[in-house]
Amino acid sequence: MKKGIIPLLSIVALATMASAAAGQKQAPSPVKFDVFAGVALPHGDGSDVMKTGYTVGGGLDVRDPKTPFGLRAELLYSGLDMKDSNGAVDQGMTDFGGNGNAVFWIGTGAPVTGYLTGGPSYAHLTYSGTTGQFSGYTIQNHWGVNYGAGIEFPLGSLSTRLDVRYREISMDGGGTFETIPITFGITF
């Protein structure tokens, strides 16, 4: 009889430990990746000459789940066309750049979590156009800033993010290139 009780107690002990482990909420990962896409709205003087464009990219969030502060690094690519091409064909601008941001998370632990973000931006801007048989382009590399806010929320089994930013890049001659990217992303 003692031989039957020891295996039975072992099975009960393993089942209790397994159910306790399954019942515990898994701690959030300190590292999250995201991919995003959306619109790039020209702002300031650029809104007079540029059409609404697109932006796509990806990022990496690093955050200790016990604090509301984190860091985010992003790579992005945007394209905007000119409103009036003055006879040129395919005249526009592309922006391959990145953001290095601090993030302050608001309301962590709820299904919907808000955040504020901001930091330096880098832009590799390419202006291009074709007129008749002639085509050309100009490249500029500049620094600037970006800041904004967003929300992270579940959408079915996905973790998603809606983000609005203001991005200002310093240009030659003292001007700025300003956009308002509005993106939707998936985090994992």
Gist?
The protein has helices at residues 2-23, 46-49; strands spanning 31-43, 53-63, 69-81, 89-106, 113-131, 134-155, 158-170, 176-187. The chain is mainly β and 188 residues long.
Question: What would your notes on this structure say?
Answer:
This protein has 188 residues and is mainly β. 14% of the residues lie in helices and 64% in strands. The chain has 2 helices and 8 strands. It has an 8-stranded antiparallel barrel. The longest helix has 22 residues.
Structural class: mainly beta
Strand content: over 45%
Give the total of domains: 1
Can you write the helix and strand succession as a string? HEHEEEEEEE
CATH class: Mainly Beta
Fraction of residues in helix: 10-25%
User: Which strand order spans the largest sheet, edge to edge or round the barrel?
Assistant: 1-2-3-4-5-6-7-8
- Poorly predicted parts: 18-24
- Counting DSSP H or I runs of 4 or more residues, the number of helices is 2
* pLDDT averaged residue by residue: 85
Distance between the termini: 52 Å
Largest sheet: 8 strands, antiparallel, barrel
Shape: elongated
Number of strands: 8
User: What is the rounded Rg?
Assistant: 24 Å
Q: What is the second-level CATH architecture?
A: Beta Barrel
- Could you please say which CATH topology applies here? Porin
